[in-house]
Amino acid sequence: MSGHDHSHADATQDRSRLIAALAVTVLILIAEIIGAALSGSLALLADAGHMFTDASGLVIALIAASLALRPRTPERTWGFKRAEVLAAALQAGLLLVVGGFVLVEGIRRLVEPPEVGSSAMLLFGIIGLAGNAVALMVLASGRHSSFNLRAAFLEVLNDALGSAAVIIAAIVISLTGWTRADALVSLLIGVLIIPRTLRLLKETTEVLLAATPKGLDLRAVRDHILALPHVVDVHDLHATLIGTGTPVITGHVTLKDECLTDGHSQQILADLQKCVAEHFDVPVEHSTFQLETAAHRDQEHLHH
Fold first, then answer.
1. Are 125 and 161 in contact (CB under 8 A)?
2. Distance between CA atoms of residues 256 and 229, nearest Å
3. What is the rounded distance in angstroms from the CA atom of residue 151 to the CA atom of residue 211?
4. CA-to-CA distance for 182 and 149, rounded, in angstroms?
5. Packing angle between helix 180-208 and helix 42-67, nearest 10 degrees?
6. CB of 131 within 8 A of CB of 173?
7. Are the C-beta atoms of residues 182 and 169 closer than 8 Å to each other?
8. What are phi and psi of 73, to 5 degrees?
9. Which residues contact 222 (CB under 8 A, 6 or more apart)?
10. What 3 state SS string does the chain have?
């Protein structure tokens, strides 16, 4: 099986996971809206709001996973690989808004604790947690395969924490009548979710800004290339990440003049490509090197 076929299969599997997770999320959303109406619980209504936001995020992720299946074209030479990064960044932004809402709402409820029906609140909290557990199991095995799946996993984890908070608050309120328990647990959820969300947002932003892929030391790459026989200099060395699992490296490699006339340059090019594909912790299968003489390099520098 070729790498392209493998990527296509992965994208198809990602889409199947997202469809299943979205179906579960929508069912929980409907159940929690009904539960909020029956119990008068603001906690359940707030959690339903989280579910709605997360369902929207899963729809975004599903669109991105579907776009990833589209073939490359002369106009889009990498296809839509970047779509999953854009989707993950958008989802992270949504999660950040939700986390902020949880914190603000939690503080408000500490000041003015609402009256709730704890029995109905507990029942629908358990339904929500059970559904989220199913969705987490669906997404867990693929959460490291792409930014997109990771963002979706975090969103469902956010939902699970929200449901757990509803259950804990319902039990405390039922046993003690202390309604501020709901607010305290909501604040805990915000504290847990926001740092993870900021980390995901930082990673996706770095990809969009064409930062060097995490774990790839470009200085070490340069030193290793310079150590290869017949290599005189390396300049304009760049490395970026197109999408999950697709790092790219380009560079200008100056060789001894005779290497470009005696046919030896093709072997050097093969050595360069093997070097970046096998020697480092982040293997780079997509590499493009311009081989040049010292005279050509000097002329380039004059034009810059």
1. no
2. 10
3. 20
4. 30
5. 20
6. no
7. yes
8. -135, 165
9. 234, 237
10. CCHHHHHHHHHHHHHHHHHHHHHHHHHHHHHHHHHHHHHCCHHHHHHHHHHHHHHHHHHHHHHHHHHCCCCCCCCCCCCCCCHHHHHHHHHHHHHHHHHHHHHHHHHHHHHCCCCCCHHHHHHHHHHHHHHHHHHHHHHHCCCCCCHHHHHHHHHHHHHHHHHHHHHHHHHHHHHHCCCHHHHHHHHHHHHHHHHHHHHHHHHHHHHHCCCCCCCCCHHHHHHHHHCCCCEEEEEEEEEEECCCCCEEEEEEEEECHHHHCCCCHHHHHHHHHHHHHHCCCCCCCEEEEEEECHHHHHHHHHHC
Percent over 70 (pLDDT), the chain: 90
Per-residue pLDDT tens digits for 222-277: 999 999 988 999 999 999 988 767 899 999 999 988 887 787 888 899 999 998 99
Contact by Cβ (8 Å): 139, 129: no
Is residue 285 within 8 Å of residue 245, measured between CB atoms? no
- Single-letter amino acid code for the residue at 284: V
Query: Dihedral, CA atoms, 86, 87, 90, 92, nearest 10 degrees?
Result: -110
Q: Which residues are bridge partners to 288 per DSSP?
A: 250
Its pTM stands at 0.69
Token pair 């202390």 in the structure block, residue = 178
Query: The sheet that has 286-292: what strands, in order across it?
Result: 231-241, 247-255, 286-292
